[in-house]
């Protein structure tokens, strides 16, 4: 059943891409210069092709394709390094301007929790207050007067997302096999990371657990407020949580009306994000202005916890060390930590990489946020990663996206902010913790455990290796990279070689028969010779066509 749906969805994707893509060729063909407007703009369809902006049509196509492509558009709206500014400005609208679906919220609640609505809720607004690509949000009031929001997953979203992700992954695989540049930038791994993040967002039980973990992490921090959750009215498709009054973090007029300096909010938000990353290893992956609010008390309020980044303790320690390397302009140690963190790397020239790192250090340190061209910096960073074939873990790409989003917000609120100077107080706090007696004791205990494992396990492993060698059971496995592609190339070469042999054989055979004048003659030459020459000519023609196509 799912297979049939997947093919239907693929057909829909191709139709939409055709509608919004192939018409671009027509609209850019300059045909409107030679054909009168009265003919070209005779109906709304052709009028849209020639009058609507290209960027608007890209955004419209993504909206029409649904949640997966909307999320992809949101991701691209923050990639100044690869997406032109005008297109990014249009894609930003995908964060807020999403059409609503008709959902009977009361029936859905009653069916999901087997409750009588009037016994648990005083009121439920049937018109959504917000619409996202995966869910819609409704306001409601519990019997005790508590105002809550109900986040409800759109119908059929799970099937659509799975089919779309399969299409995107298959497309990237095809491009990866065809174009070396796609392999070099590890695009498939980036898409896989995007897919994992999106699939996590489909589960509201997962989001509820994320919120509760996030609240525990910040229970002693007064600069942040985390909404309460209600498990009694939550499941995998519905999430019930506290309604929080507030304004978007980039609402400068609203912050002034609250009497809150914008610089204070930027610094608080930066500190909170550093704490998420460096202390908890569990951070918000999508901190765009629609997901970060400020309440009247000046507390930062994060919402939408469907997409979160996660790090194991070792990775968190490496990221901490890299932040300190960055602040101390220590390129050598930074490179060592990058190699520790990387899944794959092939650094040919470490001295050149060191010089590139110093160039980025200088670019950031000597300029305020308003003077830094983030697109130039990201392009340089991407070039460094691609040139050295450095593939980082999934959470790093999620983190880079979060940093990019916060950079955009910081630019709006306080363009004169100097990032290294703003990070230093938090880094100093971490450095003090690293030199505390408790931390050193913990590190000593972990190192002693490691030494114990080495002393007990390595001798046993060596004995096992020697036993296998003595009994001739030791085998070496190796893998030939791109073996399938090599096999295909060899197969094509074999076909061409066989055609050339056959063509030559029939040609020589026909010549021998013609010289011997064997059998019935046609125009002074044996019929078998004529057949041989014809077959040789046909095979030679096919061989030439093969050769021309392969160029």
UniProtKB/TrEMBL annotation:
InterPro entries: ABC1_dom, Kinase-like_dom_sf, UbiB_kinase. Pfam families: ABC1 (PF03109). GO terms for molecular function: kinase activity. It comes from the Bacteria. The keyword Kinase applies. Residues 93-335 form the ABC1 atypical kinase-like domain. Keywords: Kinase, Membrane, Transferase, Transmembrane, Transmembrane helix. Belongs to the protein kinase superfamily. ADCK protein kinase family. This is AarF/ABC1/UbiB kinase family protein. It comes from Sphingobacterium chuzhouense.
């Amino acid at each position: 059943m799912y297979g049939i749906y997947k093919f239907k969805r693929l057909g829909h994707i191709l139709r939409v891409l055709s509608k919004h893509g192939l018409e671009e060729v027509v609209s850019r063909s300059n045909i409107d210069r030679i054909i009168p407007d009265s003919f070209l703009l005779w109906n709304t369809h052709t009028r849209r092709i020639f009058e609507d902006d290209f960027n608007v049509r890209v955004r419209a196509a993504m909206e029409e394709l649904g949640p997966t492509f909307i999320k992809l558009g949101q991701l691209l709206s923050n990639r100044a390094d690869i997406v032109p500014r005008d297109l990014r400005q249009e894609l930003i609208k995908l964060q807020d301007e999403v059409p609503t679906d008709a959902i009977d919220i009361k029936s859905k609640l009653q069916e999901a929790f087997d409750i009588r609505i009037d016994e648990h809720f005083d009121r439920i607004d049937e018109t959504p207050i917000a619409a996202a690509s995966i869910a819609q949000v409704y306001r409601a009031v519990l019997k005790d007067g508590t105002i809550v929001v109900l986040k409800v997953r759109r119908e059929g979203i799970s099937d659509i997302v799975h089919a779309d992700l399969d299409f995107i992954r298959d497309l990237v695989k095809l491009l990866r096999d065809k174009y070396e540049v796609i392999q070099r930038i590890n695009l498939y791994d980036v898409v896989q990371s995007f897919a994992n993040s999106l699939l996590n967002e489909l589960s509201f039980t997962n989001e509820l657990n994320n919120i509760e973990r996030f609240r525990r992490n910040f229970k002693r921090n007064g600069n942040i407020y985390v909404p309460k959750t209600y498990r009694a009215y939550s499941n995998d498709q519905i999430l019930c949580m506290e309604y929080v009054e507030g304004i978007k973090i980039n609402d400068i007029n609203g912050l002034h009306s609250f009497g809150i300096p914008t610089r204070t909010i930027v610094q608080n938000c930066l500190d909170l994000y550093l704490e998420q990353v460096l202390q908890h290893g569990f951070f918000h992956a999508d901190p765009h202005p629609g997901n970060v609010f400020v309440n009247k008390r000046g507390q930062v309020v994060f919402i939408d916890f469907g997409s979160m980044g996660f790090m194991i303790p070792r990775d968190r320690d490496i990221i901490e060390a890299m932040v300190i390397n960055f602040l101390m302009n220590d390129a050598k140690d930074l490179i060592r930590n990058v190699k520790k963190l990387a899944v794959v790397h092939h650094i040919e020239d470490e001295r050149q990489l060191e010089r590139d790192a110093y160039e980025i250090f200088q670019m950031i340190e000597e300029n305020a946020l308003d003077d830094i061209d983030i697109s130039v910096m990201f392009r340089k960073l991407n070039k460094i990663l691609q040139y050295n074939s450095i593939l980082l873990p999934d959470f790093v790409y999620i983190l880079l996206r979060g940093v990019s989003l916060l950079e955009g917000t910081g630019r709006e609120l306080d363009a004169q902010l100097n990032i290294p100077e703003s990070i230093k107080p938090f880094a100093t706090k971490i450095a003090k913790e690293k030199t505390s007696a408790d931390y050193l004791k913990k590190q000593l205990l972990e190192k002693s455990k490691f030494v114990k494992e080495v002393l007990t396990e390595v001798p046993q492993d060596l004995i096992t290796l020697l036993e296998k060698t003595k009994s001739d059971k030791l085998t070496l496995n190796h893998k030939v990279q791109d073996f399938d592609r090599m096999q295909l190339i060899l197969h094509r070469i074999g076909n061409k070689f066989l055609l050339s042999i056959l063509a030559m054989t029939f040609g020589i055979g026909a010549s021998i028969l013609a010289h011997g004048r064997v059998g019935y003659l046609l125009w002074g030459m044996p019929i078998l010779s004529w057949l041989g020459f014809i077959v040789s000519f046909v095979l030679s023609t096919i061989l030439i066509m093969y050769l021309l196509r392969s160029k």
